[in-house]
């Protein structure tokens, strides 16, 4: 086996282990046992475990993002496409990736390389969703200039609900949950919502004119 093939086998083994048991399972010994080599060989090819964990995380979540966004690109119906995207992300079959995300947020507090990769991958999701919502704005489905807000809200809701599901604190009907999440995101970013918000802001603005008093009582 060439050095390149050996390195790839170690990487593939680590990815498989992380999908089964999470990022916390990635130790030199565990990866070595998975691949069937000595710990010294793993350490030789991957001398920095923090960076290795970050690489494994990035490869797993980037692959999921590419898959989900590519599936969305196949549809012409914006709302239907968004609903399918959310249903896909809330699918219980993806709990292995959800666990990887949740552990990455926690482990990133002590692993600078992982923290940087988490930020990079979250930026990737934010950018991909912004592009989708920019199409919605162009079609008049949401207010112009609200694509970033809609993307952030959707990302936060999906991340939160998926994290809740790991401890079984989530509605059983995930399809209904997806519909409600989508409605909340779109309703918050519609042109009508923006106008209503503007009116509410204006109506609560203080009157700059000095108070007018009636004639003194005699």
TrEMBL record:
Gene3D superfamilies membership: Tetracycline Repressor, domain 2 (1.10.357.10)
Organism this protein belongs to: Microbacterium maritypicum (Microbacterium liquefaciens)
Residue span of region Disordered: 189-218
Keywords: DNA-binding, Repressor, Transcription, Transcription regulation
Transport in keyword set: no
Top-level taxon of origin: Bacteria
Residues of the HTH tetR-type domain: 4-64
SUPFAM superfamilies membership: Homeodomain-like, Tetracyclin repressor-like, C-terminal domain
Molecular function as annotated in GO: DNA-binding transcription factor activity; transcription cis-regulatory region binding
DNA-binding region: 27-46
Regions crossing the membrane: none
Protein name per Swiss-Prot or TrEMBL: HTH tetR-type domain-containing protein
Coiled coil regions in record: none
Pfam family, one: TetR_N
UniProt feature, compositional bias: Pro residues: 208-218
